[in-house]
Amino acid sequence: MAEDPLSHPALDKAAGEEFLREAFQIILEEAVRKGTDVTEKVCDWRKPQDLQEILDLELRSSGEPQQRVLEHCRDVIRYSVKTCHPRFFNQLFSGLDPHALVGRMITETLNTSQYTYEIAPVFVLMEEVVLKKLRELIGWGSGDGIFCPGGSLSNIYAMNVARYQRFPDSKQTGIWALPRLAVFTSQECHYSVQKGAAFLGIGTDNIYLVGVDERGKMIPADLEKQINKAKSEGACPFFVNATCGTTVLGAFDPLADVADVCERHGAWFHVDAAWGGSALLSRRHRHLLRGIERADSVAWNPHKMLMTGLQCSAFLLRDSSGLLQRCHGANATYLFQTDKFYDVAYDTGDKTIQCGRKVDCLKLWLMWKANGTEGLEKRVDRAFEFTRYLAEEIKKREGFQLVIEPEFINLCFWFVPHSLRGKEGCADYWERLGKVAPAIKERMMKKGSMMVGYQPLGSKVNFFRQVVTNPVVTKQDLDFFLDEIERLGTDL
Amino acid sequence: MACVIQEVRSDDHNGPFFDSNKQEIFQRTKNAVLVNGVVLNGPITDSKAGEKFVEDACKIIMEEVIQKAADVTEKVCEWQPPEKLKKLLDLEMRETGEPHQRLLQLCQDIIRYSVKTNHPRFFNQLYAGIDYYSLVARFITEALNPSVYTYEVSPVFLLVEEAVLKRMIEFIGWKEGDGIFNPGGSVSNMYAMNLARYKYCPDIKERGLSGLPRLVLFTSEECHYSMNKAASFLGIGTQNVYFITTDERGKMIPEELEKEVQRARKEGAAPFLVCATAGTTVLGAFDPLDKIADICERHGLWLHVDASWGGSALMSRKHRKLLHGINRADSVAWNPHKMLMAGIQCCALLVKDNSDLLKKCYSAKASYLFQQDKFYDVSYDTGDKSIQCSRRPDAFKFWMTWKALGTTGLEERVNRALALARYLVDEIKKREGFQLLLEPEYANICFWYIPSSLRKMKEGPEFWEKLHQVAPVIKERMMKKGSMMLGYQPHRGKVNFFRQVVISPQVSREDMDFLLDEIDLLGRDL
């Protein structure tokens, strides 16, 4: 008689655990140890078509043997960029914190969603504690919030909540019959403001860009001007976004002045501190965000400067009247039953636009438990000092030119190769200079020695944006950084 | 701000950071470079201690979660009321850090009091079980911590995502298409709604909705609640979601859809989107896609299929007919983290259009990220298709499982889940006190447990009111006992009933028998 497959579990536990054990060794060795080893490459560059062939991406009818799958693991690790490498400076995140990593691995293994207490009791409670801590650092004694899948979504949430607060009926009626809603943000803001305005049905034309000064900071007088302009056009100014730590220059908008303007016009004051928020942990540097407690909402991404790992993005709200719940709630009866045997106020899942939601609080919480607020403060201070050191070194070195004096940890500079030095007067100087950074970037990636980003900004041609958040970076790495740029670019 | 750089050198030996040789550490401290009093060239984190923590913690994860995952003698959950759990957990975040052993203890506590969604008797949600391959992929992801916006930063994961999307598109039945992975099916549905709106009137991206004709969308009354959330979020408004009645099997009635579209037109509104559901959340019903597609074609409406839950039936040659007609959709949401156990989150939005519509709709062309003068073909930088900036490589865990199991392996999983569901249905029909709500066509088995005290009662208002109170009590008892977890809910006028969901290949007949026995055991005195 044929054996009935349904009578036994169809899961090979022993083989699965063996696979896991072997893979874990590979991960520890190849990704963690080698990835953080300064003598290894940051990236093993391959052209897209070549990489496609190497990786054997095809998904076939039959499965592959264990050993082959382990080889895939090795290949994936090998050809991935080592964002934990001491010389990965390319994005606003880098490094690998062991406690956060464990938090993330526990999160993956437990594989649950954050919507209700019954399904995620520990994490529902933990998220509240973590958000409360972040709010305290902002300067709020109470408030609300949630973790979002990214700072972009935090900003979009803010825009939606602001709209709902002003026009609560619009949740049901939509915004057809409303006057044109106007959004105000600096021209140096993160592009999620544009994406948000489009997504929410507000329209990118209704974003009024406010001018910035030579340091990249919003000009409050221009904000006032833009708001008045919008009003005169019959639009409704309902939302102002100030940035603390702009993406490229790392500039901080003058929050107290912006708050004054918002109060005067009754506009919601949101602070996009996705990048700069972590400066609040440093007693020495928190002054950069002076006035943040006057905000109605704040976006803050610990996955950037604090190295929790993607994603860890908090959306924080000063309101404690349940505005977030009212704005987003849909009261789905299959998930948020009101007749549960515990206090359903703990089921916070309806505050979000998501249904299933990843647990993002554990990695931050565990890392904070391991380091304490003081330990995290040290990291933040260290990042500032790295930048200070580099800025001073750049001033000493020939061929390096700061774009502006950094107030945060974005270090923006041009490298001017010998062939262009002293030629600032030439008509095509800037055009030629703009070609330098891309060429050096290509060389460094093909060599695998380091990674740093470049971009144009306004009328400024391509310049490097150096960002150091990883606490394992040392002075040696910083010196290497400058030497390497020179080495790679000297003959251009 | 004045910058004070002090260099204290005694020799030139600044060795590599990760050498655990004590001599090196001593020398590094002697060669301290200080900037404003902060040491720059010495470590402020001990990498060896960090690695040890990772190893020790992984041992705990292995023993406490993974090895116990398939063990039915372990509890599914260790219930504690919220106020008590707060005290047990020591959640406070303090000024100073805690020692190694204490941190490991915290990890153990977190694991102990968390619900074991890997357990064979966890049936509470539309995800369950453990997949070793996707777990390894997730560990790799965490160790590498990539963000999938550009080829330069995450070359492998970007190519993997493209390969997975391509394959999923083939299973839907499109020759080509586009897509992206999102943080949730709700977000996928929002993307589709926004995309349909953009297709209808591309100017809305810039102009917004103010002053435009009222857009209206249509979806079944059994749809996922993300439809409402999406309508509000996008500025369309929940009033402009027209719910179409369903038949006794929970499926959208096409004739009603036609009626509603006509009604909307008469009102002077602008119908633009129909969202059909393939696998509704509670009943697991599949809307008749062919007939709905006919109506959409006739009226020029975008057809989105929310197949977040039911999409995985496409992997099974036996069951894919449930989604017959899906190739006529303009967009599909499909969550492999549900039936295919890819791990939260793994949610794809697939789009039939191959003219870059997704990118046109979402792009903002940020010059600091999507530079046009890179040294490689920048069409590989797909991040601008998304509303997110940083984004997780969610496709990778699905890819890993697919590689390991092959399409056949995934098909077997789906077939097994549905076969077990059939077994449970047959058993329910045989057992006294258990009553099916309807004959399921997928993996949702909805039923009432009627304790003996109610079995003789006539089915009137009093009966239903009493029955309504049964499931919550049994749920409470099962959670406090920790023997299993399954969900209940009221639904469309029907009082609280259980919704059993079968997903994991760990689950066998024995667990189905146990399910019924346990419910009876826990509820017979009610």
Q: How would you characterize the overall build of this protein?
A:
The complex is a heterodimer of chains A (492) and B (526). With 492 residues, chain A is α/β, with parallel strands linked by helices. Chain A is 41% helix and 13% strand. Chain A has 3 domains: 5-36 and 44-78; 113-358, Type I PLP-dependent aspartate aminotransferase-like (Major domain) (Aspartate Aminotransferase, domain 2); 372-489, Alpha-Beta Complex (Aspartate Aminotransferase, domain 1), CATH 3.90.1150.170. Chain A starts with 12 loop residues before the first helix and ends with a helix. Chain B is an alpha/beta fold and 526 residues long. Helices cover 41% and strands 13% of the residues of chain B. Chain B contains 17 helices and 15 strands. Chain B has helices spanning 22-30, 47-66, 82-89, 100-113, 132-144, 155-172, 185-200, 204-207, 226-233, 254-266, 289-299, 357-362, 395-430, 452-455, 461-468, 470-481, 509-523; strands at 5-7, 33-35, 38-39, 122-123, 178-182, 215-220, 241-244, 270-277, 302-306, 331-334, 347-351, 434-436, 444-449, 485-491, 494-501. A 7-stranded mixed sheet of chain B has the order 5-11-10-9-8-6-7, with helices on both faces. A 5-stranded mixed sheet of chain B has the order 4-14-15-13-12. At the A-B interface, helix 1, helix 2, helix 3, helix 4 and helix 5 of A face helix 2, helix 3, helix 4, helix 5 and helix 6 of B. Chain A: Homodimer. Chain A: This is Cysteine sulfinic acid decarboxylase.
